[in-house]
Amino acid sequence: MTAKELLLQYENAIIKEKILRDFISSQRKMIKALYHIPGRLDRQMKEDLSRLEKKLTPYEEELVGIPKTKQKIFDLITEIPGLEGEVLIRRYVNGEIWEEICDHMHYSWNSVFKIHRRALQMAQDRLDQGTFFDT
Question: What's the pTM?
Answer without folding.
Answer: 0.74
